[in-house]
Amino acid sequence: MPLIELVGVSKEYLKDRIPVPALLDLNLTIEGGDFVALMGPSGSGKTTLLNLLGGLDHPTTGTVRVGDDSLERMSERQLTAWRSRHVGFVFQAYHLVPVLTAAQNVELPLLLFSMSRSERRRRVQTVLDVVGLADRADHRPNQLSGGQEQRVAIARAIVTDPMLILADEPTGNLDARSAREIMTLLSLLNRDFSKTVMLVTHDPHAAEFARRTLHLEKGALERDVTEPALSFRSPTSRTAGVST
Amino acid sequence: MTLFSLVHRNLRRNRLRTGLTLLAVALPLIIFVLATTVVNIALRIAASAKEHLRLAVHHKVSLINPLPEAHRRRIEELDPEHTRIKAVCGMRWFGGRVPNDQFNFPSLAGDPDTWPIAYPEHRLTSEELAAWQSERRAAVVGTTTADRFGWKVGQKITLKSVIPPYLTVELKIVKITTAGDTRMVSFRRDYLDEMLRAVGAPAGYANIFWVKCHRAEDLGPLQRQIDELFRNSPDQTKTEDEEAFLASFLKMQGDLPNLMAAVAAFVVLVVILVAANTMSMSFRERVGEVAVFKALGFSRRAVLLLILAESVTIALWGGILGSLPLYLLLKLFPDIGFGPISRISVPPRVVGVALGMSVVIGLLAGLVPAARAYQLRVVDALRRVA
Fold first, then answer.
1. Looking at the domain A4-227, which fold is it?
2. Identity of the residue in B6, B288, B296 whose CB atom sits nearest the CB atom of A109
3. Fewer beta carbons under 10 A from the terminal one: N or C of chain A?
């Protein structure tokens, strides 16, 4: 059974009381452990789809199933609890709390769980090791580079060991080198830790890291391309893009 | 890290703004605490003055001008049956200091036979009364002065006057009292007169005669009768009840509680507006962050409580800053006072009220941003921030 299943999903927003369609009758399945890039022009529905998968929004019609849970049936409170257990979010602007250290930012989601302080510290230490920032644990966000901030945000996303990582333009604010580091890290999480990664991006180079690329256009799925991800290909083939 | 430490760290986000908000809460509360304290003291003194049923008879010109001893007898003759007047007690200002010490305290000599009747609030036991009556150098000392010098009952003390003829008296403490002005040292006027005569200074005068009455309704008529009695005397009198001595407070007595309530309400309102503005600004700057908190799994209720806790914390710190230093200052320096109030101390109840007010201020100020955080839709907020 696929991890994610969307059936007949539509989403409409009201803009000045006029309904604006964001997604139109979308049917989609995603296997657990997959790395999927969502691409398309602005307003094509990428972020809307990501929000529905993360339980941040309800579809206007249709069903959204993630794992064993049907998200469209859940109340706000249930979705909040569900998100804390099953989803890790990575945002373009990192959204770290500036007054907290890297370790404390990573620890934030764990405050929602009944967990001893030592267990929290252990988990924080582990994920900071994974993202390569163990030596920056006591640094505040303003003492880190953009790439390091995003790695802290990724550590925060995975500290609760979610099954699904939703990344919305995670390389949008980064230079090419940092962007590559972040994408390599997401690939590693996908490959070595079996996390299902959904990535919204405009950047074809970032999308190269995904195994599957979904192209959205005006709220509908236009293309669905599956090919070996960059991290699994030989170095010589890295110039090949999925957007061709 | 805990949610509590998160709240405190958020307050350090913009230290200048936090500091200014804290002061905006603290400064009005200092005024509130001080005003409430003074009003409380004034009301307490007024209440006790009414209970004392005493009239103060002093020279019409000023308190410094002494009245002759004969005035006591003539006042007593106004009520030969003692149905209205309980006792008349002459008091003379001594102006004593402990040698080589600058601590300032009132010292007065009173008539040995009537002083215990005129000042029953000191509650002399039969032994203490007997000691007062038998010992010419007997003295009753207030706790503040006794504590200051470590004096005990039975101890002999020396006071040196700072006014002519600069007498030195040696007194024996028969009671340490907590009543009235606790800096006061009272001793017998016959002993003072004896010392005055010994150096050839005029004796048999009093700065004030306290007339202790039986009933409150006697005060007014007696007041008029006494001043009428000495109208044609070379030493005319001005008779006032004890409340009149506290006129600056007591004239307002009836309005003070309402006035204070109005001031308190005004203070709270102004502070709430200031704090609410600050909290709203703070929230506006952190809409994206609040949205991320919700995305991470913080419930609407948790986010609401975080914002409220932040608002209450900042207001509570303002409340602490606005009340505790004043409380401790007056606790450490109990001799700070002015006018008829010899000691000001902030009642713990007033500190409690101030802290309670600060919590209410925090709650009300944080209400709007907390409600907005509660209602905030993650999707909308992130889109706005993006």
1. Rossmann fold (3.40.50)
2. B296
3. C
